[in-house]
Amino acid sequence: MDEEDEYNENNMTLLNMITLCGESTLYEGLRFAKDLILANLCLRIIIQYVPMPHNVRHSLSLIIGSFLLYFNIGSNFIWTIGLTIGAYVSIITVSVVTKKWRGFYVSVCVILFLILCEIFVLNPIMWQQIRGIQMVAAMKIISVAIELDRDLFKQMLNPIEFGGYVLCPANCILGPWISFHTYSHYLEVKFLCSRWIVIILKNLVMSMGFLLLSNCFVPGYIDESATKWLVAYRDAQAFRMSHYFVSSMSVVSMISAGFGLTNDCHSELLVTRPMIIELPRSLVQVVIYWNMPMHQWLKTYVFKTCQPYGQFISILTTYAVSSLLHGFNFQFSAVLLSIGTFSYVEYNFRYKVASALEVCCLANPCLKQCEHKYKKNSFLAVFVNTVFSLITAIHLAYLGVMFEASFSVQESGYSYYHITSKWENLNYFSHGLAAFMYVIYLMM
Amino acid sequence: MSGPPIMKWLCLFVLFLCMRCEANKPRRGRGSMWWGIAKAGEPNNLSPLSPSVLYMDPAVHATLRRKQRRLARENPGVLAAISKGASMAVAECQHQFKYRRWNCSTRNFLRGKNLFGKIVDRGCRETAFIYAITSAGVTHAVSRACAEGSIESCTCDYSHVDRSPHRARAAAAANVRVWKWGGCSDNIGFGFKFSREFVDTGERGKTLREKMNLHNNEAGRMHVQTEMRQECKCHGMSGSCTVKTCWMRLPTFRSVGDALKDSFDGASRVMMPNTEVEAPSQRNDAAPHRVPRRDRYRFQLRPHNPDHKTPGVKDLVYLESSPGFCEKNPRLGIPGTHGRACNDTSIGVDGCDLMCCGRGYRTETMFVVERCNCTFHWCCEVKCKLCRTEKVVNTCL
Predict the structure, then answer these.
(1) Do B380 and A332 lie within an 8 Å CB cutoff?
(2) Which residues cross the membrane (chain A) (predicted)?
(3) What pTM, to 2 d.p., does this model score?
């Protein structure tokens, strides 16, 4: 009798979760999407039907973007506006002195501004709310400064162009980052097709699906009393679903502004690849496909800029910049540094294994013809790759469990203690595994 | 089930006729008679309770007051929820008091008799708990049924306008920020209001005993409401919190029961407040004769011991000390602890010394077949084996 009671209770919480959680989650998700889509449709329709000179278009983007920011984060939007104005002023000022180091100085200024904001000015809840927005703005600003150094602009951008680019409603809230030239191109281009609506709806449905998965279904499908690795996998997966939601929602906002469409009206925008991350080949692949525009940004503006100073320095700078952009906190530094070392070890280890066993099992799949004896469909290759996939899934659970937290923690930022307790609970397994693989790699 | 509409109307008409004749009879039963609904569905337990079955059941009708019947008629589907809530409350009460001298036993359901027996005639702690848990059960079950969409008249409140004060108060008590609401999970509001209408029928709040019942009913509802948790999750670029999504989650009824049991242990004994003298003078200006409905809940009970603090909304209150539950007492409907199982190693109330009130106990060894080695199968099934185990059973003499 008693057991039956327990059983019913379990069943009830599942039902509870679906009916109670699903409906309000969907409602709030759609409410958020509504503003985003309306603002961007507004931008696109005006551009499409009202002929306007160049600068007016940019100022339209600036104005709609500012309104959208205001409606989403309230008065905190002055921090983004402030960052934009400050960055523009400092680009002009630095331009007087030097034409070659603008990118470096502006990057330092922007990152310093973000760190100072976080430490001294803003309360943690507010910072967590605007962190993502500031990050996208910072990436845009730095990319403009570096492109100025590389002489990719005919003349210095005027404030309206700059403001329109940074505050563009299509990507000022959830990203993704796009370069100034892409932005400018999409703003000029005119198109009309019915597929457009279909693409928006498709992405909207997808993002709502991911939102439901993240909020309601994934947290419920493995019981709390299961082994800690299963629980960690579940929590990490809920976080990944949240990321897919954000990514597909950003695609929705881009597409509804008409950004990211080819001339024959197909979406050329790819932000993340859920399938590659959920069934990962390697950690390297996860890093690449997690947020493709961001990956590209890091590669183009940080890695390539630092390449003259040597491989090691450029890799280190890339990780430093990417964790500083996420804000000055131990959690991201720890996670990113771990990803960095894990993927480095994995990359080298798989290279050794591939050459020793002559199997196609490199971290990245061979493009066309691989020179190994056992091709990718051979049994040995499939087996080895499956083992590596499993290891990657474990790494992902280990790294992603960090982002599972009570709402108050999510809202106000993660502490040092939070991280160590989460990883201690899993006995620092992944770090141990990586170290073990590195030792074998050295011995091979 | 899905008969022609004319049948449905006929049923309603017959129901209406019944009600008319019932209404002509003199007032029967107390406000708490509706508890019987917990057992009403039992004989045909195999089929799920459908509203129409409950409508027809004369046993159900006997238990309900005129206003309660009206409420059930106006809110199709609610009767099944109430029945579920009541049986949930009985089960929870029996779980919470499994190892105490009073074990929340229920009588056979007979027309005109009270489900919990004559103990409710006394204003003691146990009675306070019964009122609170049953009221909580109805609130919980109706809220849930509403969220699941099985009550037609309960609609989701998307307007955010109707923000009743008790909700804000509950939010403040639970120390959660009042969130701008959307979505259907807000149905606790419906459950709360409905429970006030349904459960508190007949408790006019005139006598002290009625005030006690009202207070305890309200305490049960408040427990459900404050145990209700708001859950939120952040979404945004790389774990930031650009988008927040929140939803409410009803507590499990077990946690409500646990909280109420705590209140039972810390219940306060109250007496007639001396504000009773002032209260009518205040009311005199507005409504001289009738107590306004809302004011029914606006009273303050005074603790029996002036040194104790006044009872809060979530505290249980009682008027008189509990009778001894050791010996059979037909006048109070107490069966006594003869034949109850007890634990010979415990020194608590479940221990044989206290449970058997010093009469001693009998020890027997017997074989029981029970479920064991239960495993959870994904998803969502529990499979068990049957094991034969030896058990030592102590029963009070």
Answers:
(1) no
(2) 77-97, 104-126, 162-184, 196-222, 243-261, 328-345, 378-398, 426-443
(3) 0.71
